[in-house]
Amino acid sequence: MTTTPARRWPGRRAIVTAIGLVLIVAACAAGIFLFRGGQSTPARSYALVNPRVDTLIATVNATGQIAPVQTVNLSFAVTGRVAEVLVRPGDVVETGQPLARLDTRELELRLTQAEAQLAQVQANLDRLLAGPSSAEIAAAEAQLAQAAGQLRQVEGSVTTADMRAAEEQLRQAEARLNQLLNGPRESDVQTAEARIREAELNLERQRAQLSAAKTNAQIQLEQAVNQLTQAQSRYSTAKQNWEYVRETGADPIVRTVADPNRPGQTRPNILNDSQRQQYYDAFVQAEAALRSAENAVAQAQVNYDNARLAEANGVELAEGQLAVARVNRDLLFATPEPDVLAAARAQVASARAALDRMRGDQRGGQLEAARAAFEAAKANLERLRADPRPADLAAARAQVDGARAARDLARLTLDEAVLKAPFSGVVAEVNLKVGEAPSPGRPAIVLANLERFYVDVTVDEIDITRVSVGQPVTLTLDALPEVTLAATVETIGPLALPQAAVTSYQVRIGIPNTDPRVRAGMSVGADIVVAERENALLVPRRAVRNDRGRLIVDVVRDPGLCATPPERRPARPDLEAREVTVGLSNDQAIEILSGLDPQVCVYVEGVDQRFTFFTGPPRAR
What we know:
It is a single chain. The two termini are 30 Å apart. Helix 2 (105-130) packs antiparallel against helix 9 (390-415), helix 4 (160-182) packs antiparallel against helix 7 and helix 6 runs antiparallel to helix 9. The protein contains ten helices and 20 strands. The protein is of the alpha+beta class. The strands form five sheets. A six-stranded antiparallel β-barrel has the order 2-10-13-12-11-14. Strands 3-5-8 form a three-stranded antiparallel beta sheet, with no helix packed on it.
């Protein structure tokens, strides 16, 4: 577990480096003493402290970078040339505010065409629902009046013209009845079936192509996510190496080498300028690769969302076309309404009776024909006044639905030609030029919400059990060492990070309020407070050693030595080993539950006298 004291001091690596430098200075001093024949006071390689009652705060340390609460890469969902760029980097925009526009002249024409088609089929449906016009009703009423007049002329004389008229009426009536009884022509049926097959093939083709496009987009998104994970891992390693080089000047891989001046001893493996530059170049390259991988994931997400929308709209339109084709085919085979068939038969009977009467048949035939004509005209008028047939309504409604879907698709395409802000924020990047098509490999506009920030840090499996949502966090910034931010743990990743060197989990830290100097991307150190103990008896952590499973603290038999100046203390005081029980600890101090009291004098081996055990090494000036 990585812990820190209540106040933030340089990290463990810096402490170890400071101790190493102190030991080197002590060794040099010892050499000078031997060289001078023991003329100076022997160096003391230990320190004495009294236990201290204080509040002990344990923290889990992690590092990360400040990120805005929202960042999105915006791209156009349709193709075209840029007509207008409405923002510049640094502009503050509101939700829904237009950011850029494509040339929409062709898209507007397509929408106008789709709206006209919808208006036409809607008018057909409205006309069908409204019923026949007043002119059609008047014509039917006139036909009924004519039939009534013929019925009254039953006793009239028959002329040659009457004979020809009766024969023509019979021929027309029989042709009409045959058409109703025999069904549609073969050519009409074949045409309707061909249109259904064409609509079915188009639906299958749309489903296959659009589904394949969506699957490809999903695969590309998954690949981009995997590449981002790899880039994050490489960046973390390169960053840690460079920070170690920058802080110590030594090689982070081979940290020590043999010291030619001290046989059997080692010294830090200090790098030259060329070697330091290599580690810095590796860090810069890893950071650039990480940004590129993040942009690739955002673009892949946009492509996947567009593919899903295209699949839904394309399949819906193809299904509507197939429904219209099937309804048109069914209309050819629709059974004529009984009143229509009865009217046709009545007209045949009327025409035949009239002709028979004119050819010398009995007078009763003429009367029957007149009555039949009257009934036919009456049935025709009733049919016009009745509600439309369900099959006709279904076909008209299907045409309206198909035209409405085409209109909505054209309107959606036109709307997507205007890039709008999905949330309020600051324009971070603009990659558009008027008159040119947007680059497919780069986001058109990058938008960030800088009102709030967060930090994602990585905590290993040993420490994650002590971290919980809501714990306070203290953030310090490398770029602004005088600034300290109060934060809170917001979320803890339920799954371990993939492809990590050790099992680790991602912890998100929310920053409610930030200093105006804080910017996204700044490196921060996070101290997560995981435990706090008041009135704890504390000793330096280095004072506790493990002796075959027992925890031991060496105390001086003469407690008064703690008050004696260091230069007057003996080179090796008389010690007593005491077994202790420990509790909470951090990097500097450890709690003693039993075995010691505040009056004892604790012996600490091999530590610089200037080292402050309970708060860390002295600050650099």
